[in-house]
Design goal:
The chain is mostly helical. Helix content is about 60%, strand content about 5%.
Length: about 550
Amino acid sequence: MIRHHATTTSTSTSPPTPSTTVGPSPPPPDDTVLTDLRTLALIRRVLCTHSPPTRALDELLPALTSSAETDVELYALVAIVARDYVFSWYAALSNDSAFGLEVVALIAHLTRGVEERVRKLDLEGLLLDEVPAVVEAHVADYRRAVERKDTALAPQMDLAEIFRSYQPHPAFANGAESERQYLQLLSNGLLAVLLPNEDLDSDCERSLLREILASLVFGGMLDKLSEPFMLYEIITTLVRKLQPDLAPLDPPSVVTSRRSSVKPGAVRIETPPPGPPSPPPAPPGGLERTFTIVASAVSTIYSVLASLHHLLLNPLPPRPPKRRTLIRSALPTCLSTLLNFRSLQPWLPSAIRLLTKPFESRNTFLGTLLDDLLISKLTPHLTSPQILIDILRSARATLFPGNMPAPPRKYPSEKEKKRIRTVAEYTLLAAFPEVVTKVWWGAREKKDMARLVGKHWLDPFADKDVNKVLIVRLLDLIVGRLLPELLVSGGVKLRGVRSGDGDSPSEESPEESPEEGGKEEKLLRGEKRLHGGKVLVVRA
């Protein structure tokens, strides 16, 4: 709270002495402080309109999560959405301020319920084993579909149809209608588990929320994230986040042309004219290079030994008995499949598996020690709340720059799509040391190596219809782990149980009539898929 103190003025006419001379003004606050102040002002202005400004926000608004910083970012998103998409039309109907409080209370109930389920979730198994298994299956089946396309085995089938024969899913059984019904039933199941009983019994509220989730949230996410250029941009952003000191891209570079046939401000790819050759940098001396290598090796060995010493003194809690070690989880196999080791370097997967043979089981001391070491390095990154805070902050800055709705993005042209893919190719190529790329791709020009990077590493994400299957399977997996009730029963049955009506639905509606119940059983039946030596059950 900022307190205002009274100030007094002196009536003396004597000149100020050096001790009373006004000093230099304090430095202005940095951008982070100003951004936080604007965010708090936005939340208070939208969600706490009739509350006194002297009260703290934590006294006015319920906690959404156990982290205060996460609550601020969530409430900032809620305030923007409520201001622009809810209160804007509700103000024309009523000036009752209780509506805003009810919206906030409902959101707080939902977020606390989700957080409680996330705490019980096995994040290690989900992010390091199950999600990589789904991605690996996508990449492997895509390459099989490409090999079978235009052959005698599939003469009249396009790539998406061949791929769906490898990964059938009820959401794509009958085109767009099946996709719409699947998203509605999935949203209905989420609401049946997460909504409070009094809100669940309201037909109007439940139908409105179901349509918002199915059409705006899940439908919009499925349509946008399945675009190849969106996935290429995500890959580029992730690589640059992991390697912030990545060198700038080499030609072809992104430039803005003023004197050309392209419209002003248009972005295109062109190769700038070569400049005068610069003298090559002097190579480091042998002694300097040797010292750098030895220093790096000593630093790495010291870090590993310090971590091992800490693990020996403070061992990790025992892991589930059926849990595979990290080096035998789906994560290394997924990376091997993504990088196409079997085609580019066939000897490498077998060599790695042979070298890691002594560490593949936790029944040995070496296996347990290495697995604990890897888990201790990865777990802090998986469970850090700062990751969620950064995601929410980036989402708000992207969707609502300046806390205002962003103008709709113009769908990129074919040239712009090629530019985005080229940027992703060169970014991936620059992420590896030059020695590795020369051994990997041979003595080729950089543009040829970038083209091979796109062919082997980016092509599995180049088809929108195929990417939709990947997004839906990841959605299935995450929702099924967060809400395991939906792996057993549909939303209609769960709502009937919560309402005290047994297994029968509480109402007859166009979406939930007995006929639609048959559709639910048809669309959301358990789908078993044998993959990686285990059966994955996917239900909405």
